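Example A, followed by Example B.
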Amino acid sequence: MDMNEEEAAEVADKFKEESVESFRNKQRRRSSIQAPRIIDPNRRTSSVSNESCSSYTGSSSDEEGINPREKTQKSSAGFTDFCVRNIEIHSVGRKEIEIAEQIDMCGLMALRRRAKTDKPLHGAKIIGCTHITPQMAVLIETLIALGAQVRWAACNIYSTQNVVAAALAEAGVSIFAWKGESEEDFWWCIDKAIHADNWQANIILDDGGDATHHMLKKYPTAFSMLKGIVEESVTGVHRLYQLSKTQKLVAPAMNVNDSVMKTKFDAFYCCRESVVDALKRATDVMLGGKHVLVCGYGEVGKGVSAALKAVGCHVMVTEIDPICAIQACMDGIRVVKISDAVGSVDIVISCTGNKNVVTKEHMDSMKNGCIVCNMGHSNTEIDVNALKNATELTWERVRSQVDHVIWPNGKRIILLAEGRLVNMSCTTLPSLVISIAACTQALALIELFVAPTGRYKNDVYLLPKKMDEYVATLHLSVFQARLTELSEEQARYLGLNKSGPFKPNYYRY
C-alpha cells in the first residue's frame, strides 16, 4: 500500500526517535561497564605505568591472591592431601568433566566400561605429571576406576584449569596443581606428587620427563623400584633415550608419543584445529594475508601450516631435515632460513621440540608488532630467558598470557604464554584428540603393569601396533564408521590375521 508524503514523514520521524533512544540505551549499557585501560602504542619505555616494568618480574597469569601452598584446604569429606587454587569451585569443574565424558571421549569411556570389572591396574600406584584439563581428568578417573591409586601434578605452569583441579581434589585425588605456578611452585608440586608417607609409586605417566628426572635425581632408591614409565612428549621421549643410552633407565619405558594415533591426532589434527583458536583468543588478530614463519615441518608444523594456509596466511617454514623440507616444498610452502625471513613476517611459531630455535638476536630483527609463540612441547624453543635478563627491554602485561616486550626504540613484539605451549595456555584442546591420546596412555600403563617379568628390558619401546589399532577402533563410533572385514581367503592372500594388526611396524601412515 502506497503512503502519502505526510504518512511517510511520520514514519521517518518515529524511526529516528527509536534510533536515538536505541543509541542512548547502548550508551547507558556501555557506561556501566568499566572500560579497559588503553595502552598508547607510541609511548616510550621511559614512561611505563605500574603495570609495566623495566625488566621481567613474573608470569603473566591473571590469578592473584594467596599462594595455595599457604592455604589450609579440605574437601567436603575432610580430605586434605592436595593443593589447588580454590577447592570451593569444585562443582564447576565437575560439570566440565561431565561434559568431556559425554562429548567425543567415547573411546576412553568405552575402555573404562570394558576393563572396570577386571581392574587390570589393581595395585598400580601411578605418579602423573600432565596437563590438568577436563579431558585429562577423565583419564585420571578412568585409571582409578581400573584399580589404580594416583598422585598428580601439572607438567605446565599455565595449562591447569583450576576448576578441574578442584573437582579432582573434591573427589579424593591427591593433586598438586594450579594455573600460574612459579618455577619453585612447579617443582614443589611434582615433589609432593612423588613423595608421600607410606606410598611408593611403581609406575609414572609423564609429559615432558620432569617427574621422571626429578624422581631419578632426588629419590633414586624409589626410582629403582619402578615397574615402568609411560611418556607422551617429544622432549620426554628424547630424555628417556638419553637415560637408556647411559644405562640409567632402571625400568622399561613406553614411548606413546610416536604411536600412530598419538602422532596423527595429538600432533597433526589437534594442532591444525587449535593454533588458529589460540592466536585469535590471545590477540584478536586477523590472520588472512599475514606472513607467518613456522619453525619445523614435522607433524605439528604440518598441522599448524595447513591451518594457517586455510585462513589465507602466507606460510614459510624452516627445517633441518631434507625429507620434511621437500614435503613442505611439495605442499607449496617455501623453505627458508630463519635469519632470512624473521625480519619481515607478522607471526613466528616454533614447532620443533628443540632449544633456542628463536633467539634474542632473531627477535631483535623482528618488526614492530610481530607475534611470537610456541606450539612445540619444550618451553626452551624461544629464548625467553635472554629477554628476561636483558635490562634494556621492558615487559608490559597486556592480558593473561600476552606480554609486550618493548625495545629501547619503542619497537615491541607480542609474546604469548611466555614461550610455553600456546594452544594449551590460551585455549583448550578437542576432547576427541585427548581421548585418543589418553587411551594410548592407559593401554601403555596396563601393558607395562601386567607384563610378566622379562617381557620388557630396561629400554624404550613403542606402543604395539595392535594397541594402536584398538584405540582407533574405540573411536570409530564418533563418526558412525563401519569397518570392512576381510574374508578368510583375502586374509590368507595378504598373510594377515583377520583381526589385525593390518600393517607392519615399519609402515608409514
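Example B, a separate protein, is given below in the same form.
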Amino acid sequence: MAMEVGSAGVEAVAMETEHKGPLPQPSGGRGVTWRRCRLEMTAARLEARKETKERRAGENAKKRKVKRSDDGKKRGSSNARQSSTIFLFFLHNSIVAYEKTELVIIAEAQGTVVGVNYGMLGDNLPSPAQVVSLFESRGIGRLRLFHPDAAALAALRGSGIEVVLGTLNEELPGLAADPSAAEKWVAANVAPFAGSVRFRYINAGNEVVPGDTAGNVLPAMRNLAAAVRAAGLRIPVTTSVATTALGVSYPPSQGAFSEAAAGVMTPIAAFLRSTSAPLLVNVYPYFSYAGNPGEVALDYALFRAAGVVVRDGALGYDNLFDAMVDSVHAALEKAGAAEVEVVVSETGWPSGGGGLGATVENAAAYVNNLVAHVRKVGGTPRKPGNATETYLFAMFNENQKPAGTERHFGLFHPNMTEIYHVNFQP
C-alpha cells in the first residue's frame, strides 16, 4: 500500500489464480440435511436390495437342495456379517465425506466474496498454524499471501481456504527474463502444495505499475502462466495494481489509465482477457477521503450516504468504493478489455495512527458496511450482477510497517483479540 495522494477530481485516490468464480452455492445449511436424507434413502434402498438378493439366494439354494455342513454355515454367517459390516462402514464414511464436502461448499457460499490479506511485517505475530485456525474459526474462506511462505502454505494444507499467492516485487526481473526461473518458482512454491492447498490466483508483483520496473510485470506473468501449465495446474496468473495507475478516475465513466501506466496496462489487460484472469486492484476510499476531506464526504466513504452522491449519466453512486471500482472497469474498457473482471485485492480503514478519520469506530463502520455491501448488492452500478470479490487489509496490525496509519489496518491485535468485530457470517 503506497501513500501518495492523487489529484484526479473527487475520486482521486491515494494508496499503497485454480478455478475462476465461486463454487455452486447451495441454499444455506439445508443442503447438508437434504443430501443426508437422500443418502440415507439410498442406503435403505441398497439394504433392501441386499436383503432381497440374500432371500432369493436362499430360496435358490433350497431348490437345488445344496447341503451345507455346520462349519460351512458358520463360515457363511461370518462372511455375511463381515460383508454387512464392510458395507455399512463404507456407507457411513461416504455420508461423512459427503457432509464434509457440503459443509465446505456452504461455508464458501456464505463467505466466499470476502477474504483477508495475511501480512507478516511484524515481530510479534502468531504462528501460521494459529493464523489459519483463526481464519477457519471466523469463517473466512479466502486468504492473500504477499509472498510464498512455506510455514503458512503448510498450515493451509487441507483447510479448504482459497489462496492468492504473490511474488516478491524483487523477483520480477528474474521471472521476466528467464522462463526456467518461473518454472523453479512454481516447482518450489506451488507444485508441492497444489494437491492440498486451493490456489485461487498467482499475482506477479504488487503495485509495480506504473514505475521503473513495470516492464517486468507482463513477461513475468507470461512465464509464470506457462510454468503453471507445464506443471499440469490450472491457476490464473495476474498482477495487483493501485488505483494510482489511473490518470482519470472521476466521474467513474471517464476512468482511464495514466499515460505512464497505459503502455504497460493495455497489453496486461489483453493478456488477462486471453486467459480469463481478473485484474487485482487495491482500492482505498480512506486515502481519497483523508487527502480530500473538503470534497469527499465521510459518509460517502463509509457507505452511510442517505442517497446518490455522484451522478454519472444514468448511473448513481451512494458510496466511494463502487465509484472507484467502476473507474477501473471504465479504464479496462478503454484498453479493449471490458470482459476482464476486477478483484479488489486490498481495501481497509485504519483504526489509529493519527490520520484524519483513523478511528476504531470508522474502521468498524467501513469494514462491516463493505462486507454487507459486496455480499448483498451484487456488483457495481457499471457492472451489476456479480458480487465484487474483495480482500480486506489486513488480518493483523503489523509493527514493522512504516509508523503512522499503516500500522493500524488490522482486524486483530497480534495476540489474536479483535480490534473491532467483523461479521463475516451472513
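On Example B: The chain has two domains: 9-22+112-408, 30-105.
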